[in-house]
Amino acid sequence: MAKAGNKAAEGSRFKRWAVSSLKIGTLVALMGLMVIGIFVAIARGEIESFEDLKASPNGQMIRVRAADGTVIQTLGPSFGRWIPIDEIPHEMKDAMVAVEDRRFYYHPGIDPYGLTRAVVVSLTDGGGLRATSTITQQLARNVYLNNNRDIGRKLREMILAMAMETKFSKEQILELYLNKVYFGGGAYGVDAASRRFFDHGAEDITLAEATIIAGLVKAPSRYSPTADAQAAIGRAGVVLEVMQDAGMITPEEAASVEPAKVRMAPEPKQDSVRYFTDWALPQLDNLIDETEKPIDVWTTLDLGMQRAATDAIRNGVPRGAQGALVSIDRDGAVRAMVGGTDYATSNYNRAVTALRQPGSAWKVFVYLAALEAGYRPEDKVVDEAVTIGGWSPRNSSGTYSGEITLRTAFAYSKNTVAAKLGEEIGTSSVASMARRFGITTPISTTPAMVLGSSDTRVLDMTRAFASIAARGKSVTPYAISKVTTIDGDVIYQHRPSRQIQLVEDYVAGAMTDLMQSAVATGTGRAASIGRPVAGKTGTTSSNKDGWFLGFSSGLTTGVWMGRDDARAVGNLQGGTAPAAAWANFMRVAVARRPVENFDTDVTFPERLEDEEMMLGEDGEEILVDENGMPIEGMPGDAGGIPPEMMEPEPLDEAWIDEALGRSGRDGENRDQPPARNSGPKTVVAPSPRPQ
Q1: Mean pLDDT over each residue of the chain, to the nearest integer
Q2: Which residues contact 614 (CB under 8 A, 6 or more apart)?
Q3: 115, 129, 391, 643: which one has the fewest Cβ atoms less than 10 Å from its Cβ?
């Protein structure tokens, strides 16, 4: 009996202890829930509204596209377009929920089952404490916390997740998550990821694409299809299995999906294309005001031409040298730009930044000025030794040809003839002509300037030749054709620049005639491509720089080669490697363009040479005005022209700005410049341009 009584007493004590423990546990649990509830309530008050959370983060995504729409560069973090939950394909939603949070629609922000399972696994495998995160927890971490793996951060994450569940619906939470989670490759949100990897918006995602994207969240860098395609495909297969196990797709649907056959967006070019984009993108500051919304920048770059340009420069420059190429279409669109042999090793853009002497390529401005002053291609000039102010230029051949035509002198790049022309028409007139045609760098007016002693840029020289090809009308290079939001709304559209007649039509036509001869029979023969070509070689002293610039079928291209340290390059002449590279590029660039013959059948103004001079007493020549009346003063003192009129002609900066397209951002141009004299001059001394 005593033993039974003891057992009853022990049972009674255990019962009292159990009841007491249960009460204490319940009280502690209630108190814990109250504390959690208080923290959740506090957190709920600190969470922003749904509309505020939808706002785009700081940073703008810029996608740069070639002329055909191909993405060639992506800048900045990519946030894509905000996609409402009802516009996101159910395949994408199901894939994400299945692989990241299967019980998403049933838990209060934290998943007790998943949490318990994670703790059990952690205790049984000896791998340390592990935890699992629901979609809501991941959203809370992405928006408000960091990725530290300490317990304190995990508790804050759980509180915030439960607070979000009390403030937002499941659909709102999933919408926020799918539009904010990081998928790798700089893409935040499902739309950015879809555009980054598949080049289309999230609203068009297929089941196969959805499995690839959903598989990225666990480890974006490891499973990125652009970094490891096989890893991405393998992970997509896991997502398919999970979706099937969760009953979201049937076995037949799973079997029909082939992630390996998904067409991926081509990787943006990271080589020579960057020379072009580095030059083009800074121009956005003057074109648009949008600095937050993701944008697409549509450029003028032709990828086929760019590849041909890259090959021509990379394979054509002499060993140890560098090269640059710019190609401009007839409307000013820059179709190709290469600033060096390899962007990865040198991002210095020699096409738009480097200052180099153009050598004999500069003679186009000398001959333009001569043609405007009244010379014609068939006029006779004398190739002979000459000394001007102590400077004695010589031809590269070391010989002189005597009396030849202006066309022959240009075709064979006779230095002595260019020097004599510069002395006759005035180096200030040559400088003014270069300014008209877009040369923006300082220009010397010493006698040697006629041989290209003033530094210039490849882009400027190519632009000048493009303006000659345009029958003397100004051509303004541009790189950006339009800018749109990623929804397709146009926020900038390029408008053709107003062309200004830089020289008369007959002057440009005669210049083209001379340049065509230079390629057909002169120093530029290596630039022949089986269709009409007009161009000019350029070689500087000691072979430090080699140029070829020319045009054909509406496309103008300039090529430069040399060393960055300006040391001599053996056998480098404009008519060798530069002309050959030009031809190799142009054969590809104009292959699909119709053959165009140059219109060089021009009508020159009537010459009145017999009325330019009158004889004074003792047969001495005197100057006459435009009415044939004698001008007072003797030839020895410049015919009575005041000394200040003999100073170099001042440049009309306003007119030059307009010709170079330096207008305000609103697109308005200055007033049209005054008309220019187009016929032969009636005085020997250079006359000022009419004001």
Answers
A1: 83
A2: 621, 622, 624, 628, 630
A3: 643
Question: Which residue intervals of 55-134 are DSSP H helices?
Answer: 90-100, 112-125
How far is 314 from 514, CA to CA, in rounded Å?
Answer: 30
Q: Do residues 440 and 653 lie in contact, with contact meaning Cβ atoms separated by under 8 Å?
A: no
User: What's the chain's length in residues?
Assistant: 691
Q: Between helices 458-469 and 505-520, what is the axis angle to 10°?
A: 110
Which of 54-63, 237-246, 381-390, 594-603 has the lowest average pLDDT?
54-63
Pair of tokens at residue 272? 């020579």
Q: What is the pTM of this model?
A: 0.70
What DSSP string describes 454-476? S-B-HHHHHHHHHHHHTTTB---
Q: What are the residues whose beta carbons fall under 8 Å from the beta carbon of 124, sequence distance 6 or more?
A: none
Cβ–Cβ < 8 Å for 98, 504: no
Residue 298: beta bridge partners?
65, 482
AA identity, residue 401? S
Measured CA angle at 638 (ends 636, 644), to 5 deg: 135
- Angstrom distance (rounded) from CA 544 to CA 572: 7
Instruction: Write down the pLDDT at residue 116.
Output: 76
The contacts of residue 22 (CB under 8 Å, 6+ apart) are: none
Q: What does the DSSP assignment read for 644-674?
A: GGGSPPPP-HHHHHHHTT---TT---PPPPP
Phi, psi of 588 (to 5 degrees): -80, -45
CA atoms within 13 A on the CB side of 201: 13
Neighbours of 244 (CB within 10 A): 17
Measured in whole angstroms, the distance separating CA 641 from the mean position of its chain's CA atoms is 52
- Encode burial over 551-570: b for 16+ CB neighbours within 10 A, e otherwise: bbbbbbbbbbbbbeeeeebe
Residues in contact with 597: Cβ distance below 8 Å, sequence separation at least 6, in sequence order: 532
C-alpha torsion sign, points 568, 574, 580, 582? positive
Tokens representing residue 275 in the block: 């020379």
What digits encode the pLDDT tens for the residues 584-603? Answer: 999 999 999 999 999 887 77
Give the C-alpha distances (Å, rounded to integers) separating 494 from 490, 560, 608, 623: 11, 29, 46, 51
Q: Tell me the backbone φ, ψ of residue 68, rounded to 5 degrees.
A: -90, 5
The three-state DSSP-derived secondary structure of 529-543 is: CCCCCEEEEEECHHH
In angstroms, the first-to-last Cα distance of the chain is: 135
- 64-101 pLDDT, tens digit per residue, is 999 999 989 888 777 778 899 999 999 999 999 999 98
Classify residue 333 by burial, with Cβ atoms within 10 Å: 0-12, 13-18, 19+.
buried
CA distance readout (Å), 56 to 137, 176, 179, 530: 20, 11, 10, 55
**470-473, Cβ contacts within 8 angstroms, sequence gap of 24 or more:** 470/330, 470/499, 470/508, 471/505, 471/508, 471/509, 471/599, 472/501, 472/502, 472/503, 472/504, 472/505, 472/507, 472/508, 473/499, 473/500, 473/501, 473/502
Q: Where are the alpha helices (DSSP H) in 267-355?
A: 273-280, 303-316
Please say if the pLDDT value at position 298 is more than 80. yes
